[in-house]
Each structure stands twice: as structure tokens, then as C-alpha cells.
Amino acid sequence: xxxxxxxxxxxxxxxxxxxxxxxxxxxxxxxxxxxxxxxxxxxxxxxxxxxxxxxxxxxxxxxxxxxxxxxxxxxxxxxxxxxxxxxxxxxxxxxxxxxxxxxxxxxxxxxxxxxxxxxxxxxxxxxxxxxxxxxxxxxxxxxxxxxxxxxxxxxxxxxxxxxxxxxxxxxxxxxxxxxxxxxxxxxxxxxxxxxxxxxxxxxxxxxxxxxxxxxxxxxxxxxxxxx
Length: 227
Known about the structure:
Blueprint: H1 3-20, E1 27-31, H2 37-46, E2 50-53, H3 56-69, E3 71-72, E4 78-79, E5 86-88, H4 94-100, E6 106-110, H5 113-122, E7 127-131, H6 148-157, E8 161-166, H7 175-191, E9 196-198, H8 205-210, E10 215-218, H9 220-223
Parallel strand pairs: 1-2, 1-10, 2-5, 5-6, 6-7, 7-8, 8-9
Antiparallel strand pairs: 3-4
Helix pairs in contact: 2-3
């Protein structure tokens, strides 16, 4: 992975975000899924706001590699390597939560009560996004829009911090369907008094920004095609 190329892409993304954002500061979550630990190290050096991972085992392996390598200290020893805050953005299973506690800073794909219960038990005070399926596609994660309010209330009742709502655009990438899905989720977040909206990836970034995203999840447009 060429760091100079990634830096140029990041500068272009930052420019697009500054030009198109309608809701103030936007967090850029660099999606390192499918790339090696070097992608996380590059994201750290270039100042990405966060990293996003989809799979529990992949995240655990890469962070272990980073921490084992460490960095040489002036005294000749080693210190624990650092990395940007970790957002878990993939489909989450209750039985994976225990192994991820201590590795994940923000849980973005919380979409049912069983996950909320387990997070409340294992990671009290954790920051989460409630994922909403705003496109009606059966193969996508997320609660139904009608369930959003109840899940947010439930999460708060067990001590979780709800930073906002999260959604994924339609598989067919139709602009109008994408815009409608993002608009729905932004409206729900506003109705619930939530500032955060995690919407938008490499292919629908500008639509998401126009519709009020405050966090975008970017992989391909930053690191290139996955191996």
C-alpha cells in the first residue's frame, strides 16, 4: 500500500467533505476491512478520525499484530502501538461481543434488543449507533424504522451511550432510493435528539453528506480495491 497515494486520496476526501457537509464536522472512518495491519498504521499516521472493521477475528488479529510490533522508544524498549478509535461496523453477533470488549470503541451495528442486553452486561457505558434498515432489503442488517425509538430507549435504559443512528444505502446504488433512505434516518435521528448519523460510503458519499451525515465510512476511495 502506497502511503503517498492514500494521503492524496484522503486530502481529496477531506475537500469533498468540507464542500458538501450540511451538518458541521464529519468524522471520517477509514474502513480497513480486508486490508492488512499496515492500513491501520497508515490511517494512524495520516490522522484519520477512526478505523472501521467488520469481522471480529480479523480485527483481533490485526490489532494483536500492531501491538506486538510496537514502536521503539527513546530508551530502547518498546511501547504499545497506538491506532485511531475502532468502530465495529459489520453484522454483530451476541456471542462475539465478549471477545471484542476492550478492542472496540464504538459499536455501530446495534440493531436488536439481544445485542443491547449483551452490551449492557459486558460493556456498560459503551458508545453505540443503532442501525436502521431504511431500504427494506432483507439481506441488510438494521432494525425496521418503526423499531428505532424503542431500541434507542432500551439502550439508554441499560446505560449505553447512543451517539446516533447508522444505515447502509441500497444495494443497487440508485440515487433517489439512496437519498430517501438517508433522509429517513436523518429525520429519525433529529426526532430522537441524536446529533450523529453514520451514513455514506465510497459510492454514495456526497448524497450522504447532503442529507446530513456526520460520519462516513470510507474504504475503497481511500485505500483502493481490496485484495
